[in-house]
Protein 1
Amino acid sequence: MLVPIHEEMMREALASHFSPRALEIIIAANRKQDALSNQIGHDEIHFDNNAIDAGNRYIKEQRGYVLAALLSPGVLSAWIAFGRLTHSAQDFYSHTNYIALWMEKNPRLSALDVNPVDAEIFASPKLHSGKIYFPLDALYFIPPLRKFALALLPRDSHAWMNLDSPKQGERFEYARAAAVKRTQHEFEILQKILTPEMLAKFVDL
Ligand SMILES: [Zn+2]
């Protein structure tokens, strides 16, 4: 998703759970995942190129860092790891066909009803994510060349599949709603596994 959308979703999902200084650091770490150095060769961070298992492993790994950081003095690295984790969790809905599969399964339900953790879709062999085809997928990001790139790119490309912005149509609302809910869900997972002392340190309230 576009960086300002990541930020908006973070505030929506987490502002009531963290101190303002914690929230700003978590958001900065989330935004940093879209820096160029975290784009190239890091499919797992954005669930690109069918890196579904690697993306899920990355999320678990960052959750592990949150725990490890909270067991040691200081809290900064816990916030940074949680910012990284949430970025990937959010990109899952804009870079895979999870939303298309969910809408197919629930044709009458609205974006507000979206379930971000449907176990059946997680396990579906149909679940895949957009492939990056260089250099055409790079040309897609240059607005005057977008049409040209789309005409040449296959349907399983990032350019055709992404739900990164409202310009992508109706499905974007579902992806955004799912990403906000998933962000809250990731916080709830930590709420369950952290001791009260660790949680107090983490939320910084
Ligand atoms: Zn990303």
Protein 2
Amino acid sequence: MTGVRDRLLTTIAGQLGNPHGVLGKGVAFVLDRGNKRAIAAAVDAASPPAGATVADIGFGGGVGLGLLLARVGAEGVVHGIEPSPDMLARARGRYADELAHDRLVLADGTLTALGLPDASLHAAITVNTVYFLDDLGAACVELARVLRSGGIAVIGIGDPEAMAAMPFTRYGFILRPVAEVVAALSSAGLIVEQRTLPNTPVPHHLLIARKD
Ligand SMILES: C[S@@+](CC[C@H](N)C(=O)[O-])C[C@H]1O[C@@H](n2cnc3c(N)ncnc32)[C@H](O)[C@@H]1O
């Protein structure tokens, strides 16, 4: 019985860190529904103006791409950066029109290798992704590198205690104290403000990091 439970929890954790295959389609749907509130709050906190160039990193099901596209309007550009080939393919189908009009640019990448030029973004969001990162410091340095002066990066994370109570997080998630994420952003030279969203069952913390 333990073996079955282990396999199930390993599969759930693996899918959340790399949604793929038939199961990945369902996971993408669940991510979009379950995380939309936190992602929308991250977009609001980043508050990019119309015409801005922005990114959603580790966009998963892709709901954040749509929210950012609506926010920056017809003159803006949204970069969707994701390491999962299946999530990239899903976004290609879902946002074919925006891709065709160069309002959306999709690319294979990670938080530590964004593949964007220095100082190219007004804003970036990344929600529920840093659990899958070994090198948080390198990711924060990379975020700071791609932000323009005055630009804002928002990292959204589930409250570590609430996350720890979910059994699948023991199967490969790295749950860092909020203060550790704040410290990594500060060490990368960003000025950080913290907000908490009382989402259930997992409250989220938004770390809103501005480049001077
Ligand atoms: C739990 S899902 C979250 C998706 C979406 N941001 C949301 O909140 O619904 C984690 C996503 O991060 C992506 N991911 C995993 N490792 C990553 C990394 N090192 N850099 C960026 N994204 C990563 C996964 O492919 C997956 O789409």
